[in-house]
Amino acid sequence: MKGKKVILITLGISLAVGLFLSFNNLLQNIWDRFVIKTNFNLFMPWSSKVVWIWSQGEDPNIPYTRFVYHWKQDNKPRQAQLKVSCLGRYQLFINNQSVYHGPCFAIPPKIYFDSIDLRNYIHIGENQISIICNYLNLPIHEYAFYPEPGLLVGGEISDGLIKRNFADHRLWRSAPMKNIQNGEKIAQNAGFVEINDLSTQNALLPTSKSIIKFDYAIYPRPIPLLTYQLIVPKQIPDSLFDLGRFAVGYLRLRTNFRSGCSIKLTWGVGVNKDNAFQPNFNQIDQLKIPAGKVIWEQFSRRAGRYIQIEKNNCVGDFDLELNGVSMPFNEAKLPIFDQEIDQKIYQISANTLKNNIQDHFEDSVDRERAMYLGDTLAMSKCLISDGNNFDLIKEMISQFAQSQRQDGSFPSMTPSGIKQFIPSYSLQWAALLDLYLSKTNDKEFAQEMYVVLRGLINWAKNHESENGFLYNKQNSADWWSFIDWTPFDESYEFSTSLQLWYFRALVSAGNIVSLIGESNDEYINRANLLKQNLIRYSFDNKTGLFSDSFDEENRSKGGLIINALAGKFNVFPSQIENNKALDYFVENFITDSPFSETWIIDWLVKTKQYDLALDTIQTYWGGMINDGATSVYETYRPGTPMAIGTYSHSHAWGCGPVYLYKNILDKNSAMETLLDY
């Protein structure tokens, strides 16, 4: 009897649970249909929630996906904020107006979201939010590789008691976009040409699906939103448009053609002496445009000074604008110059800095958009030239700290989907942290970064020779001994430039641990020993120069860059030898890139050679201007044209005149300490 009762009770419970679940699912389906149809939900506790969504019609071969949220607004909203991010690039439209491009990329597993205030774009009546997300299933320089797509949404519209929440996948409709395609790559490991058919209608949008991504930690972006400035180009002959300067942003094209036609948009850096247009990498976008009034706001960011428009069977009117984009920061005031060339040099240096400060410190805005450690140190010196912008620099230091490799070194760039290692750049992280702390005295941050610093110095120690020289001890395949694009004599095992950056890192480590109240004897003693061994093995008493490379028995020739670094880091045996080296190179203080050329000027200014420093700046950066530059090149040697399509035409590692002029004009400038880094 007892066995039958147990069976009956079990069956009864199972039936009750089944009926309850079925009824619950029925109610849930009815509620979901009601929510989708009326766009009404009451999940008020979700005001701070964000959710991951994606298209149910997912097609991995279609890189662009569109998401739409539609609602009717009865009153002017008190609050209206959208939280959004994407595992790739996104473009946000509100009521068919392009509002923002994002996101700000973090180091996985972190994900940053942007918070966009919608109040100025919402009107009474029908409203629509549209987000285009571009997911690339491949590694590129600009941001980390994500193995699967996702759009993060959240936030709400509040009319007081009534709140409309964006964190509900049922209210978002989405579908892959078949009218936008990726063409060829702009450059290696960079973005793609955009091919856009505006005459094709995309498929109807089904409801989005909710996806779960437990592996990501979600944070609000730690730096301000980017700002936009409208630039109207001037039309010049041969279908060319001149922006007046090298600019970065998103094109907006308004057309009113009599019939459908096609347009090709090519970005360029200039027009040569033969009036031939000079394209800037493969930034060539193609549009198919229908008849009538059309407004196209580009998804992909572009950069250059000139835009060439080639129309095919297009009859009618069109207008072209650029939404220039950059990070807001405190820009240094333009100094008063006696010579016009100095003002032009300062302006192109400041313009390059402004263009390249985006969501991170980009090396080249017209190509890979990566944040390299060496570039970040160079740009930070320019940002600090007015004694400000420390929050931006602190965030970039933190991003590299978060990307530290297990052995204590750093990748050459971050966030990035490309694995690359440059040992001299790893060492420059210590100098970057030291530079920031020397201006802020931020002891709390110094303490936070101490464990990261220890990891870096331990990595270096593990790669030392018996005499304390840093080298590729394990013959690692990913060890790129890059210092600068200027050629070096690397005949021997030890690179002097790498030892000099190691010396600078040890000095910086001593400064940092001293700030947090720890003894710096270990680092100062190691720095002094390294200096003594460099003088013993790398310094040639006959020539009075440090060699490019050496071993215990041999030395190569001594180049300009090596000796400039030795001079700015105070490594020469005495000031007499330092001055002799300056005299040796006095007829030619020119290198192959503005990156290293800045070190040369640092050396000259530090030794009070102000007139010579000014003359060298005018020769080098002035030479770029004479060759038509409105932004600082990645590589350059006066008298030698830069190869088009090989190196970047906007490289902020050459922004040095922004702070160097201050030291030259004000011979006792408080910014003189920048010369030491």
Automatic annotation (TrEMBL):
SUPFAM superfamilies: Six-hairpin glycosidases. Gene3D superfamilies: 1.50.10.10, Galactose-binding domain-like. Signal peptide: none annotated. Residues 343-658 form the Alpha-L-rhamnosidase six-hairpin glycosidase domain. GO terms for biological process: carbohydrate metabolic process. PANTHER family: B, PUTATIVE (AFU_ORTHOLOGUE AFUA_7G05040)-RELATED, C, PUTATIVE (AFU_ORTHOLOGUE AFUA_3G02880)-RELATED. This is Alpha-L-rhamnosidase six-hairpin glycosidase domain-containing protein.
